[in-house]
Design brief:
Layout lengths: L15 H14 L4 H6 L27 H11 L4 H15 L9 E5 L6 H8 L6 E3 L30 E4 L3 H4 L4 H12 L3 E4 L5 E4 L5 E6 L15 E5 L6 H18 L14 H24 L7 H17 L17 H17 L7 H15 L2 H10 L7 H8 L3 H13 L3 E5 L11 E5 L1 H11 L3
Parallel strand pairs: 1-6, 1-7, 2-3, 3-6
Antiparallel strand pairs: 4-5, 8-9
Helix pairs in contact: 3-9, 4-11, 5-9, 10-11, 10-12, 10-16, 11-12, 14-15
Length: about 450
């Protein structure tokens, strides 16, 4: 077997003057105006240290004011899919909306494991000035007092003013023993005011709180959907199912990147924790977060939002309110859905901020297609499956057929149909005798208003 002969590196001869010129050019290329760095939420460069398995240096933000430029960099760094592009724009829109008054824009980013959610979370988290990343939380409030001092507030909520909380592994939240308490505190915080009292006789009131929350995870996150309590999140599903051909393309690219990265030493520096192209994409994302946040209040008033677009948001909001309604687990005999006002407010805000993210002057069709996708993602569930099935059955459908179609027990389907009938989604009728159908058979169909609403939202004829 022949031996491998490694080439010996040859250092080219460079004159002292030429060497100084090259060094000077490198230094000049690193200069950025101080005002620009402040606007983009930049940080001091990390010190070089040998990796001990726990390096925590921060990536520096790089100035970026164009979404197109940002996407081009991401395309060079990884297999950039429509789902990743969609998720990133929604996350950036949530961040950009943080300081705007009104209903806050909280987002659940949902997708299968290893689909890129965590990478996007780490990218926006490069900007520590406007983003507060936390993998796990135990609650938003804390009455802890250190050595009798009451000056320092140890609550998580105190660190979230004007920032976006990013939780990249929301599935761990589901395992928290105090999940109900966390969600209850979150619902309180959503309205901008939170007041609490602790058993150590300490109390704290928070007012004028503006913060957004990006919660990422798998489909398990849909378990925390409690519309009966007034769900505060909109859903963004990055990938509904794994495309076989796309997966092959991504895996080939990952294999080549892993082969290349295996010979690179990190040395404890943030820039060397990632491939150079990926590190640059993340740094530009951090810079773009800074650009959006520092200019949002100046640029958002310039975004034109037509009456047609706002009217579409009202229809989408009403559709979501019907689709994510659930029978009450707490009160027997109660059948009601949430009022759609908060949803409409969130969707209008999302549309405006998406236009800002995409560098659009108005809420155009490309923006509304993303808003519509968010609306459908937020609506997904058993109710939407039933409604979709009935929309394709003008002649109606029997309970057993619906049960088979949506893969639920007949008892569960009957319970859901009874609930949906109460909130005006479906109606029950008796068939008339035809050559194909016997008379007097009980079937279900969409109400006229729901059929029209579904048609508007889905754009189906």
């Amino acid at each position: 077997m022949p031996k491998l002969h490694w080439p010996t590196a040859q250092t080219p001869e460079i004159s002292p003057l030429a060497a100084r010129i090259v060094a000077l050019e490198g230094l000049l290329g690193m200069l950025v105006p101080a005002a620009t760095l402040a606007a983009y939420g930049n940080h001091k460069p990390s010190k070089k240290t040998k990796s001990t398995g726990g390096g925590s240096a921060n990536l520096e933000c790089l100035p970026c004011e164009s979404y197109k430029e940002l996407v081009l960099t991401w395309q060079q760094a990884m297999e950039w899919t429509n789902g990743l592009d969609y998720a990133l724009t929604v996350m950036l829109a949530s961040i950009a909306s943080t300081k705007s008054v009104g209903d806050q824009l909280w987002v659940k980013v949902i997708g299968p494991a290893s689909c890129g959610k965590s990478t996007l979370c780490e990218a926006v988290s490069v900007n520590k000035k406007y983003v507060f990343p936390k993998s796990t939380i135990r609650g938003f409030h804390s009455g802890f007092v250190l050595d009798g001092s009451e000056k320092e507030d140890h609550s998580l909520i105190a660190r979230l003013y004007g920032k976006t909380l990013v939780t990249k592994d929301g599935d761990t939240l589901l395992q928290s023993p105090n999940l109900a308490q966390i969600l209850a505190e979150a619902r309180d915080i959503y309205d901008g005011t939170s007041r609490t009292h602790y058993r150590n006789a300490k109390s704290k009131d928070y007012e004028g709180l503006r913060m957004t929350w990006i919660l990422c995870g798998t489909k398990s996150l849909q378990k925390i959907d409690e519309s009966e309590l007034g769900e505060r999140f909109l859903d963004c599903v990055l990938m509904h199912k794994i495309d076989d051909e796309l997966e092959d393309e991504v895996l080939w690219r990952v294999a080549n990147r892993a082969d290349r990265d295996a010979v690179i030493e990190s040395e404890g520096e943030a820039e060397k924790q990632y491939a150079p192209e990926l590190a640059k994409a993340m740094q530009l994302t951090g810079g773009y977060v800074g650009y959006l946040r520092s200019n949002a209040m100046d640029l958002l008033p310039l975004v034109e939002n037509s009456d047609e677009a706002k009217r579409a948001c009202t229809r989408l909001g009403k559709f979501i309110a019907h689709m994510r309604a659930r029978p009450s687990n707490r009160q027997e005999g109660t059948a009601e859905r949430e009022f759609a006002a908060r949803l409409v407010s969130q969707l209008v805000r999302l549309a405006k901020c998406l236009a800002l993210v995409l560098n659009r002057e108005s809420v155009d069709e490309s923006v509304m297609s993303r808003v519509r996708r968010v609306a459908l993602d937020t609506s997904r569930g058993q109710t939407l499956k039933i409604v979709t099935h009935l929309y394709g059955r003008v002649e109606g459908s029997e309970s057993r057929a619906i049960s088979v179609r949506v893969n639920l027990s007949t008892q569960k389907v009957s319970s859901l149909l009874a609930f949906l009938r109460e909130i005006g989604v479906v109606e029950r009728f008796k068939t008339k005798k035809t050559s194909r159908v016997a008379s007097g058979v009980t079937r279900w169909r969409l109400t006229r208003r729901m059929r029209e609403l579904y048609k508007e939202v889905s754009h189906e004829d």
